[in-house]
Amino acid sequence: MPSAIILLSGGLDSATCLAIAESDGFAPLYTMAFDYGQRHRQELIAAAGLAQRAGVAEHRVVTIDLRAFGGSALTADIDVPKDQINDASPPPQNNSTLPVTYVPARNTIFLSYTLAWAEVLGVSDVYIGVNALDYSGYPDCRPEFIEAFQQAARLGTRLTDFQIHAPLVHLTKAQIITRGTALGVDYAHTHSCYDPTSTGLACGHCDSCILRRRGFSEANVADPTLYVD
Predict the structure, then answer these.
(1) Residues 142-182: pLDDT tens digits?
(2) Residue 134 to residue 176: CA distance in whole angstroms
(3) Regarding the domain delimited by 4-219, which CATH topology (the fold level of the hierarchy) does it fall under?
(4) Residue 175 CA, distance from chain mean position
(5) Rounded to whole angstroms, what are the CA distances from 201 to 36, 113, 114, 172, 196?
Protein backbone atom coordinates (compact mmCIF):
# COMPACT_ATOMS: atom_id res chain seq x y z
CA MET A 1 0.00 0.00 0.00
CA PRO A 2 1.16 3.60 -0.54
CA SER A 3 2.53 5.57 2.40
CA ALA A 4 1.10 8.78 3.83
CA ILE A 5 2.26 11.58 6.10
CA ILE A 6 -0.13 12.92 8.74
CA LEU A 7 0.30 16.37 10.28
CA LEU A 8 -0.08 15.36 13.91
CA SER A 9 -0.47 18.25 16.32
CA GLY A 10 -1.62 16.06 19.19
CA GLY A 11 -5.13 17.49 19.10
CA LEU A 12 -8.49 15.88 18.61
CA ASP A 13 -8.69 16.54 14.86
CA SER A 14 -5.22 15.32 13.93
CA ALA A 15 -5.65 12.17 16.03
CA THR A 16 -8.81 11.43 14.07
CA CYS A 17 -6.94 12.03 10.80
CA LEU A 18 -4.30 9.51 11.85
CA ALA A 19 -6.98 6.90 12.45
CA ILE A 20 -8.67 7.69 9.14
CA ALA A 21 -5.40 7.39 7.20
CA GLU A 22 -4.85 3.98 8.76
CA SER A 23 -8.40 2.88 7.96
CA ASP A 24 -7.95 4.11 4.38
CA GLY A 25 -5.22 1.51 4.00
CA PHE A 26 -2.11 3.68 3.84
CA ALA A 27 1.03 1.99 5.16
CA PRO A 28 3.52 2.71 6.45
CA LEU A 29 2.42 5.94 8.07
CA TYR A 30 4.65 8.89 8.95
CA THR A 31 3.72 11.72 11.29
CA MET A 32 5.06 15.25 11.62
CA ALA A 33 4.62 17.74 14.47
CA PHE A 34 5.94 21.26 14.90
CA ASP A 35 7.62 22.90 17.85
CA TYR A 36 7.04 26.45 16.68
CA GLY A 37 7.22 28.33 19.97
CA GLN A 38 3.56 27.75 20.84
CA ARG A 39 2.47 28.34 24.40
CA HIS A 40 0.47 25.09 24.39
CA ARG A 41 3.51 22.83 24.13
CA GLN A 42 1.60 20.06 25.89
CA GLU A 43 0.31 19.12 22.45
CA LEU A 44 3.80 17.95 21.44
CA ILE A 45 3.78 15.38 24.24
CA ALA A 46 0.34 14.23 23.10
CA ALA A 47 1.48 13.95 19.47
CA ALA A 48 4.48 11.81 20.40
CA GLY A 49 2.25 9.49 22.42
CA LEU A 50 -0.30 9.16 19.63
CA ALA A 51 2.41 8.34 17.11
CA GLN A 52 3.93 5.72 19.39
CA ARG A 53 0.59 4.05 20.05
CA ALA A 54 -0.18 3.95 16.34
CA GLY A 55 3.18 2.37 15.57
CA VAL A 56 4.08 4.82 12.81
CA ALA A 57 7.27 4.32 10.83
CA GLU A 58 8.66 7.66 12.02
CA HIS A 59 7.44 10.61 14.03
CA ARG A 60 9.37 13.75 13.22
CA VAL A 61 9.25 17.01 15.20
CA VAL A 62 10.38 20.09 13.27
CA THR A 63 11.55 23.09 15.28
CA ILE A 64 10.82 26.52 13.87
CA ASP A 65 10.49 29.83 15.70
CA LEU A 66 7.24 31.57 14.85
CA ARG A 67 7.66 33.67 18.00
CA ALA A 68 10.16 35.62 15.91
CA PHE A 69 7.14 37.11 14.14
CA GLY A 70 4.51 36.91 16.88
CA GLY A 71 1.17 38.35 15.87
CA SER A 72 -0.80 35.65 17.67
CA ALA A 73 -1.86 34.83 21.22
CA LEU A 74 -0.22 31.45 20.68
CA THR A 75 3.21 32.83 19.77
CA ALA A 76 3.39 36.20 21.55
CA ASP A 77 2.71 37.73 24.94
CA ILE A 78 -0.96 38.27 24.16
CA ASP A 79 -3.73 36.93 26.40
CA VAL A 80 -5.70 34.00 25.02
CA PRO A 81 -9.36 35.08 24.81
CA LYS A 82 -11.74 33.21 27.10
CA ASP A 83 -15.49 32.56 26.76
CA GLN A 84 -15.77 34.73 23.65
CA ILE A 85 -17.26 32.42 21.01
CA ASN A 86 -20.31 34.10 19.53
CA ASP A 87 -22.75 31.41 18.42
CA ALA A 88 -24.87 33.95 16.57
CA SER A 89 -22.09 34.77 14.12
CA PRO A 90 -20.59 32.27 11.69
CA PRO A 91 -16.81 32.28 11.14
CA PRO A 92 -15.77 35.18 8.88
CA GLN A 93 -15.38 34.36 5.21
CA ASN A 94 -12.80 37.04 4.55
CA ASN A 95 -9.54 38.09 6.13
CA SER A 96 -10.76 41.40 7.57
CA THR A 97 -11.35 40.13 11.11
CA LEU A 98 -9.32 37.20 12.37
CA PRO A 99 -9.17 35.80 15.92
CA VAL A 100 -6.06 36.68 17.89
CA THR A 101 -5.35 32.93 18.16
CA TYR A 102 -4.74 32.76 14.41
CA VAL A 103 -1.03 32.15 13.76
CA PRO A 104 0.01 33.96 10.55
CA ALA A 105 0.67 31.56 7.66
CA ARG A 106 0.94 28.57 10.02
CA ASN A 107 -0.63 25.94 7.77
CA THR A 108 1.25 27.29 4.76
CA ILE A 109 4.52 26.79 6.65
CA PHE A 110 3.52 23.39 8.03
CA LEU A 111 2.43 22.07 4.65
CA SER A 112 5.64 23.35 3.04
CA TYR A 113 7.79 21.39 5.48
CA THR A 114 5.57 18.34 5.04
CA LEU A 115 5.83 18.64 1.27
CA ALA A 116 9.63 18.71 1.47
CA TRP A 117 9.66 15.52 3.57
CA ALA A 118 7.11 13.92 1.26
CA GLU A 119 9.30 14.60 -1.76
CA VAL A 120 12.33 13.04 -0.02
CA LEU A 121 10.31 9.97 1.01
CA GLY A 122 8.52 9.72 -2.32
CA VAL A 123 5.17 9.97 -0.56
CA SER A 124 2.34 11.62 -2.50
CA ASP A 125 -0.38 11.63 0.16
CA VAL A 126 -0.66 13.97 3.14
CA TYR A 127 -3.43 14.18 5.74
CA ILE A 128 -4.30 17.39 7.58
CA GLY A 129 -7.09 17.99 10.08
CA VAL A 130 -8.33 21.36 8.88
CA ASN A 131 -11.99 22.13 9.39
CA ALA A 132 -14.21 24.76 7.78
CA LEU A 133 -17.22 24.44 10.10
CA ASP A 134 -16.33 24.20 13.80
CA TYR A 135 -13.26 26.39 13.62
CA SER A 136 -12.35 29.90 14.70
CA GLY A 137 -12.30 31.61 11.31
CA TYR A 138 -8.75 30.79 10.24
CA PRO A 139 -8.25 31.41 6.49
CA ASP A 140 -5.76 28.54 6.15
CA CYS A 141 -8.44 26.02 7.14
CA ARG A 142 -10.56 26.66 4.05
CA PRO A 143 -10.97 24.09 1.26
CA GLU A 144 -9.90 26.70 -1.29
CA PHE A 145 -6.55 27.13 0.43
CA ILE A 146 -5.92 23.38 0.57
CA GLU A 147 -6.74 22.99 -3.12
CA ALA A 148 -4.48 25.91 -4.07
CA PHE A 149 -1.55 24.54 -2.06
CA GLN A 150 -2.01 21.10 -3.58
CA GLN A 151 -1.86 22.56 -7.07
CA ALA A 152 1.24 24.61 -6.23
CA ALA A 153 2.94 21.48 -4.86
CA ARG A 154 2.24 19.56 -8.06
CA LEU A 155 3.73 22.38 -10.11
CA GLY A 156 6.77 22.97 -7.93
CA THR A 157 7.99 19.46 -7.02
CA ARG A 158 8.49 15.99 -8.49
CA LEU A 159 5.23 14.92 -6.85
CA THR A 160 2.91 15.60 -9.78
CA ASP A 161 0.23 13.44 -8.16
CA PHE A 162 0.57 15.06 -4.72
CA GLN A 163 -2.72 14.95 -2.81
CA ILE A 164 -3.77 16.61 0.43
CA HIS A 165 -6.48 14.69 2.26
CA ALA A 166 -8.66 16.86 4.48
CA PRO A 167 -11.32 14.35 5.60
CA LEU A 168 -12.66 16.58 8.39
CA VAL A 169 -13.05 19.77 6.43
CA HIS A 170 -16.85 19.65 6.21
CA LEU A 171 -17.58 17.89 9.51
CA THR A 172 -18.76 19.40 12.77
CA LYS A 173 -16.72 18.71 15.90
CA ALA A 174 -19.40 16.26 17.04
CA GLN A 175 -19.22 14.39 13.72
CA ILE A 176 -15.42 14.25 13.97
CA ILE A 177 -15.64 12.76 17.47
CA THR A 178 -18.29 10.26 16.37
CA ARG A 179 -16.13 9.10 13.47
CA GLY A 180 -12.98 8.91 15.56
CA THR A 181 -14.73 6.98 18.30
CA ALA A 182 -15.94 4.45 15.73
CA LEU A 183 -12.32 4.04 14.61
CA GLY A 184 -11.14 3.46 18.16
CA VAL A 185 -9.50 6.82 18.87
CA ASP A 186 -8.84 7.33 22.57
CA TYR A 187 -9.30 11.07 22.96
CA ALA A 188 -7.92 10.95 26.51
CA HIS A 189 -4.49 11.00 24.87
CA THR A 190 -5.16 14.20 22.89
CA HIS A 191 -4.68 17.83 23.84
CA SER A 192 -6.53 20.84 22.41
CA CYS A 193 -6.27 23.69 24.93
CA TYR A 194 -4.60 26.94 23.83
CA ASP A 195 -3.78 27.99 27.40
CA PRO A 196 -3.11 24.94 29.58
CA THR A 197 -1.71 25.03 33.11
CA SER A 198 1.92 24.12 33.78
CA THR A 199 0.75 20.61 34.62
CA GLY A 200 -1.14 20.21 31.35
CA LEU A 201 -4.72 20.76 32.55
CA ALA A 202 -7.00 22.33 29.94
CA CYS A 203 -8.36 25.78 30.80
CA GLY A 204 -11.86 24.90 29.61
CA HIS A 205 -12.61 28.44 28.41
CA CYS A 206 -10.52 29.17 25.30
CA ASP A 207 -12.10 28.74 21.85
CA SER A 208 -10.48 25.34 21.40
CA CYS A 209 -11.71 24.02 24.75
CA ILE A 210 -15.23 25.32 24.20
CA LEU A 211 -15.48 23.67 20.78
CA ARG A 212 -14.06 20.44 22.17
CA ARG A 213 -16.44 20.32 25.14
CA ARG A 214 -19.41 21.13 22.92
CA GLY A 215 -18.38 18.46 20.42
CA PHE A 216 -18.31 15.70 23.01
CA SER A 217 -21.65 16.84 24.40
CA GLU A 218 -23.33 16.91 20.99
CA ALA A 219 -21.79 13.57 20.02
CA ASN A 220 -23.11 11.99 23.24
CA VAL A 221 -19.58 10.80 24.04
CA ALA A 222 -18.00 11.20 27.48
CA ASP A 223 -15.33 13.91 27.46
CA PRO A 224 -12.11 12.45 28.92
CA THR A 225 -10.35 15.83 29.06
CA LEU A 226 -8.88 16.98 32.37
CA TYR A 227 -10.04 20.58 32.79
CA VAL A 228 -9.06 23.02 35.51
CA ASP A 229 -12.71 23.25 36.53
Answers:
(1) 999 999 999 999 999 999 999 999 999 999 999 999 999 99
(2) 10
(3) Rossmann fold (3.40.50)
(4) 16
(5) 21, 30, 29, 24, 5
